[in-house]
From TrEMBL:
Keyword Signal: yes
Protein name: Unannotated protein
A Pfam family matched in the record: SBP_bac_5
GO biological process: peptide transport
Family to which the UniProt record says this protein belongs: Belongs to the bacterial solute-binding protein 5 family.
SUPFAM superfamilies in UniProt: Periplasmic binding protein-like II (SSF53850)
Domain annotation Solute-binding protein family: ranges: 102-457
The keyword Transport belongs to this UniProt entry's keyword annotation: yes
InterPro entries named among the record's database cross-references: Peptide/Ni-bd, SBP_5, SBP_5_dom, TAT_signal
UniProt GO molecular function: peptide transmembrane transporter activity
Key words, A-Z: Signal, Transport
Length: 554
């Protein structure tokens, strides 16, 4: 689905001990769903991993699935494309390693008290932003406070974070409102992980059109709807990196046009969720290729229909039951996603420690028709609604399929084609009834707290619980899961229950898991082989994002 919203926006057994957690060259343990990195590749030499001596110089052009509205991590609405770009100009405080654990990156260490309510983040010494100013405790505090006071990002973190205190020249303490055992993962995976220069944050527009960070590539220019270009940061703090001299990103929302641009040599690399493109490039050794099919670290993004439960008709559970019962996820997987993506019925998949059988309605056309008749009798008219879709060929096909399956049960669906940014804004402001959507993957379940908690339901204006599903039990289960060490029986039980509640509330009509693929021409080397600052392997692909710092051109 092109209409994705990255859950990172804004924002093995556990190694946690009764004395608290210390991450200083160590890691926050995760209970993942599989192995790290790509699951399927085009084999040695075409898997994005190279052991050859890197060559310096050269320019890399990458095709992305969307354009951004700006690049300020404290105010932006980053989608997957936004995260790919952000990782070149900014650095994260933490990074997910190849085992699925959060380890230090820009931070030198992160430590907590015994109940996970005070986290001390200490930066590496002698860090400089690309404008030559120090990346220190004062800069970190300014970033945290800007995020907290942001009209958008603040909605995600204020329910969880109480305050920040600078406690040293390189250290800031994060005071949380409730125990939060996996906070380091958010400082690797969520938008709040990036640290921008104070000069950028102090600019009249927050520097959103001229980002300044500590990352491997310094901003050169941005021409909206054309390209974003960065050049190598000659004073990058990671010695010897990057290898490339320049990197350019081109937004190409149309999946087939992006694939054709790669084949024509207009771009060197791309990401995609398009089944036709995936089937075309997979197994073709002309191309470097990886995807995330099968078991993976964390949970995958999911394709779904999101319903606005705060407005008619979906403020009535019966309407949601009609749509859920009448939607054939297996058929969607086969017909629309060509069997590339496995059908789902919840946020966790078989093999996950959080997965269990859920009471989500099974597809039953006859029952759906009966429920639709009950709705019509109750309300005096047949169920009808408008569903937003992105104005792109694959999205239109998805929408027309949904429109037909609803027609088959006596429900009228009108399709509204919009640009991806508009679709996201409509969801945030609640100006929708139903919308095609892709979201909810993550390293740990609580990364979905902002999107599913009752505490983040906006009564007016912006709501980052965009389905507006106001279920206090889900919020309680999130807090219970976060308060206990990840992987503990108490944590697993709490997160399992969230999936159970979603199957009853039905704010989301589940379709299938999102398959992300990365494809590159044969000259692009080592793009799937990132390393942490300590030299260990980092996660190569994460829901359509990847690291370009270590890539080079042969």
């Amino acid at each position: 689905m092109a209409q994705e919203f990255d859950r990172r926006s804004f924002l093995a057994r556990s190694a946690l001990t009764a004395s608290g957690i210390a991450v200083a060259g160590g890691a926050t343990g995760l209970l993942g769903e599989g192995i790290a990195g790509a699951v399927q590749t085009n084999g040695p030499g075409r898997n994005g991993v190279s052991t050859k001596k890197p060559k310096r110089g050269g320019s890399l052009t990458i095709g992305l699935n969307a354009e951004e509205q700006g690049f300020n991590p404290t105010t932006g609405r980053f989608d997957t494309a936004g995260f790919v770009i952000a990782r070149t100009v900014f650095d994260p405080l933490m990074i997910i390693n190849g085992s699925g654990k959060a380890v230090p990156y820009l931070a030198e260490s992160i430590t907590s008290n015994t109940d996970f309510t005070k986290w001390t983040v200490t930066l590496r010494p002698n860090l400089l932003f690309q404008d030559g100013t120090p990346c220190d405790g004062a800069a970190l505090l300014q970033n945290f406070e800007a995020q907290y006071n942001s009209a958008l990002v603040g909605l995600a973190i204020k329910p969880l974070i109480d305050s920040f205190d600078q406690t040293g020249p390189l250290s800031v303490v994060i005071n949380t409102k409730n125990p939060w055992s996996t906070l380091p993962v958010s400082l690797a995976e969520q938008q709040i992980c990036f640290v921008a220069a104070p000069s950028m944050l102090n600019a009249p527009n927050g520097g959103t059109d001229h980002p300044i960070g500590t990352g491997p590539f310094t901003f050169k220019e941005w021409v909206p709807n054309s390209h974003y270009t960065g050049v190598a940061n000659e004073k990058y703090w990671r010695a010897g990196l990057p290898y490339l001299s320049q990197i350019t990103f081109k937004p190409i929302p149309d999946d087939q046009a992006r694939a054709q641009a790669l084949q024509a040599g207009t771009i060197d690399m791309m990401h995609t969720t398009d089944p036709t493109s995936i089937k075309s490039f997979k197994g073709n050794r002309q191309w470097g290729y990886t995807n995330n099919v099968g078991k993976m670290v964390g949970s995958p993004n999911l394709n779904l229909i999101m319903l606005n439960t705060a407005e008619a008709p979906f403020d009535d559970l019966l309407a949601r039951q009609v749509v859920a019962t009448g939607t054939n996820a297996q058929q969607y997987s086969t017909v629309i996603d060509q069997g590339v993506c496995a059908p789902v019925n919840g946020i966790y998949q078989p093999g996950s420690p959080y997965y269990s059988s859920v009471p989500y309605p099974k597809y039953n056309q006859s029952k759906a028709k009966s429920l639709a008749q009950q709705y019509a009798k109750k309300h005096g008219s047949a169920l009808s609604f408008t569903s937003n879709i992105v104005a792109a060929p694959q999205s239109v096909r998805q929408g027309e399929w949904f429109q037909q399956v609803m027609k088959n049960i006596g429900v009228k669906v009108s399709l509204k084609q919009v640009q991806q940014n508009t679709l996201i804004n409509d969801a945030l402001f609640g100006t929708f009834q139903a919308t095609a959507w892709s979201q909810f993957g993550g390293m740990v379940p609580d990364l979905n707290y902002p999107w599913m908690s009752a505490a983040t339901v906006g009564k007016s204006g912006i709501s980052i619980n965009m389905a507006r599903n106001d279920d206090p039990q889900i919020q309680d289960d999130f807090l219970k899961g976060m308060a206990n060490p990840i992987g503990s029986s108490a944590s697993v039980a709490a997160f399992k229950n969230i999936n159970q509640r979603l199957a009853v509330d039905l704010p989301y009509i589940w379709l299938d898991r999102t398959t992300w693929a990365l494809v590159a021409n044969s000259k692009v080397q080592n793009w799937a082989n990132p390393k942490t600052p300590s030299g260990t392997h980092a996660l190569g692909q994460d829901q359509g994002t990847w690291w370009i710092t270590q890539a080079w051109i042969s």
